[in-house]
């Protein structure tokens, strides 16, 4: 719910695409600020405890929004702080989750496990934005966020019931600096992970722009009122595309090697951004948004799975948090901020064209590596 409510609240309070883009940027920036430290610390502690505590903190932060709104004290700064706070504790939750999933299911089941996780989340997201659009008209966006606070509390209770160990190994105690260096050394030596980080960065810049501008896109390009239920439909379309990707991923992974899968996803994403820029009809905008969810999720899930397959258990948090840092800590904030500034200075469509350029570069890099592998120059690590 908050993925829809926060940008709607921000745009309602400020009327600024730049502020709305900044909200998306602050949601992602904590990966850059805390990623290395969080990954190293979580790799040496109990993952279950980290997940429960961070869920409860997120619930409290989100609950503060409807409270402030009821007291007529809600401000843009409050929304920015909540977005940054939830994202900050989310870094620690993600670090624990990246290691917990392989520990629970094993490497041979990772693709299906990641697809199941994403499909469950996106199934909720398909319904939630449309429901949010209806609830906005009844309770307003701030009141709707109370439901998200409850969902985090429920998540904490469910994680607490997991009985199987979420840590396969207990690494020897070393300094935090040494732990961080160990993770970075692994990344430097591992060419496949480096390649997927570069490809994911291009995807993240474009994705940051799309997510940061989605509300602005509906309001300015198609003249949809800010509290109209159609904004929820747009977010539902994005989630529906993501859900379709998670359903397709196991079959895709059985028939297409990971580099080619990601490169095809990037190339298709370039075409989809062209559709977002060019469409004139609302239903085509909804369809294009769904296609963006499909292509971008294929790239994201594939990248996560590759990192988890290659990384040893005691490095899962560090390696995967660096991946998050590059994509959600660097690429997404840059894309969101650039998209907002360009939309205010030029137009929403022009902003999408410019922020698609890193995606074009990533697709080109991916095809060069696929062709190099075919010629025998690459051949490391994956089928």
Automatic annotation (TrEMBL):
Segments crossing the lipid bilayer: 20-42, 49-71, 77-105, 117-138, 195-219, 231-252, 264-284, 290-310, 322-342, 348-367
Location relative to the cell: Cell membrane
Topology versus the membrane: Multi-pass membrane protein
Stored InterPro entries: MFS, MFS_trans_sf
Record's signal peptide: 1-17
Domain of life of the native organism: Bacteria
Protein name as annotated: Predicted arabinose efflux permease, MFS family
Biological source species: Lentzea waywayandensis
């Amino acid at each position: 719910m908050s993925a829809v409510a926060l940008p709607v609240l921000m745009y309602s309070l400020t009327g600024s695409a730049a502020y709305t883009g900044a909200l998306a940027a602050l949601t992602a920036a904590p990966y850059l600020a805390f990623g290395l430290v969080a990954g190293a610390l979580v790799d040496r502690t109990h993952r279950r405890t980290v997940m429960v505590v961070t869920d409860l903190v997120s619930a409290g932060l989100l609950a503060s929004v409807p409270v402030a709104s009821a007291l007529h004290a809600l401000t843009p700064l409050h929304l920015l702080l909540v977005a940054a706070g939830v994202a900050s504790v989310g870094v620690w939750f993600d670090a624990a989750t990246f290691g917990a999933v392989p520990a629970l299911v094993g490497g041979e089941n990772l693709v299906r496990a990641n697809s199941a996780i994403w499909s469950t989340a996106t199934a909720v997201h398909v319904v939630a934005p449309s429901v949010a659009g209806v609830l906005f008209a009844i309770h307003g966006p701030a009141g709707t966020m109370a439901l998200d606070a409850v969902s985090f509390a429920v998540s904490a209770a469910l994680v607490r019931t997991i009985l199987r160990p979420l840590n396969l190994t207990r690494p020897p105690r070393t300094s935090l600096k040494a732990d961080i260096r160990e993770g970075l050394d692994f990344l430097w030596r591992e060419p496949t992970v480096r390649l997927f980080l570069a490809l994911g960065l291009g995807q993240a810049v474009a994705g940051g722009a799309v997510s940061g501008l989605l509300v602005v896109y509906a309001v300015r390009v198609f003249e949809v009122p800010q509290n109209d239920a159609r904004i929820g439909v747009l977010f539902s379309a994005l989630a529906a595309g993501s859900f379709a990707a998670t359903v397709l991923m196991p079959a895709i992974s059985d028939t297409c090697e990971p580099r080619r899968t990601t490169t095809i996803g990037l190339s298709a994403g370039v075409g989809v951004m062209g559709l977002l820029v060019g469409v004139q009809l609302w239903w085509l905008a909804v369809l294009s948004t769904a296609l963006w969810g499909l292509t971008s999720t294929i790239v994201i899930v594939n990248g996560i799975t590759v990192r988890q397959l290659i990384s040893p258990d005691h490095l899962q948090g560090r390696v995967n948090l660096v991946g998050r840092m590059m994509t959600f800590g660097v690429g997404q904030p840059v894309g969101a901020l650039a998209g907002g500034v360009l939309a205010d200075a030029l137009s929403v469509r022009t902003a999408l064209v410019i922020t698609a350029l890193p995606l074009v570069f990533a697709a080109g890099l991916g095809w060069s590596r696929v062709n190099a592998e075919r010629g025998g120059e690459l051949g490391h690590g994956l089928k």
